[in-house]
Amino acid sequence: MKKLYFITGSQDLYGEETLKQVAADSREMAGFLDGKLGDTVGVEWMPTVRDASEALELCLKANTDTDCVGVITWMHTFSPAKMWIRGLEALDKPLLHLHTQKNEKLPYDEIDMDFMNLNQSAHGDREYGFIVTRLGIPREVVAGYYEHDDVIEKIRNFARVCIAIDFGKNLRVAMFGSNMRDVAVTDGDRVESQIRYGWNVNYYGIGDIVDLIDEVTDSEVDDMMKEYAVKYEMDTDDVDTVREQAKYEAALRKFFKAERINAFTDNFQDLHGVKQLAGLAVQDLMADGVGFGAEGDYKTSALMAVLCKLAEGKQGGTAFMEDYTYDLTKDEELELASHMLEVSPVFAAGKPKIQVHPLGIGGKADPARLVFDGVEGDAVAVSMIDMGDRFRLVCAKIRMVKQPKPMPKLPVARLMWKILPDFATGAAAWIYAGGAHHVVVSTALTVDDIRLFAKLTKTELVVIDENTKLNELERELAINDLLAKFK
Ligand code: MN
Question: How far, in Å, from the CA of 282 to the mean position of ligand 1?
Fold first, then answer.
């Protein structure tokens, strides 16, 4: 279980009795939050920080504790903030400043000077907040009584983002083949991705996986086929073609386990020795949260794995998607999102069907794939692009809708959605922002989740939602370009 440190600030000025009370109160509060957040993250109480050396010691401890994914700080009393400088400068875990106090209500009849000196986060948290601002450290500030549900849920959302960032720091991405020839937006600076997010992205020759595919046994394929039979409807007589995909999936799962890989890419121009492009195999892997990006798109693949981790415990699905084509009927514009094959069944409105159809491009055997219509509801589409001097996340709110008519001749799974605030604004905004045709779509996550992830990883974020206005967005992009030059 990953955990957050719960660190309480004070100082020596108030004497032994007050510090004893601070310790007892903070222990109780950490225990309460640990109980409430237990299915997401542990909350571990830390001894009260009274001076600079104790602040530094705890921050260094948080850095080196591999189970610690983030730190909660708050000031029970006043805590002069110069003592926090060295510790905060050293801290390399995400920070939440909880602006709260032990008591919910003021004890109007009893309150005296001692009470006020003991319970003065209104005072101490402002002093502490100043130094975090002065140091330029990104953090989440949550204000409110710690037992209130909205406060607890904000801490839970922070914890989820911390867990996803921590996951990213250990993420290994396999690229089978390289980036698709001549495609720009799917490419990027892999060294910079590792520096900023920890994503370790490596090329593997397709031959490495071909050898493993050849070694897959009939009984391993049988096991895979049994799983498919439970989850999906077999809508083809061409069982051998489906078994071929089962073989790919079994081989990929073995490879990922051996190499500790949680995300991958492939490239349909580089399939030497593989009969079909992986379709059903990739779709079934994505449903398990394994990151995927087609055509060598390592950024979308890694982002998918990280956002699946962030969405753990939430209702809804998260996966790779591609913007494909439109219905441009005036004022009823819809987007049809799909891919050559690889659409995750987490978005299926009904039971996905396994079908075999020819593939228009790539010159390979007809591949098996899952075909289905998409779910309805609110979602986000997130794209990561490499601006040369920084990464940018573009996050659009979308509304997934039922397809207005059947598409009996379309041999792939498809989603349909409305772009917010309207097609003309939202689609133009996306293009001004440089958003890719590859995205991670999530019905589990919200713009606020992506915003917090961007903030804590110091990533530029452009949001497109019901409030977007094109002239303001263009101005925001110009200012962002200017700011990036001063970083
Ligand atoms: Mn694509």
Answer: 13
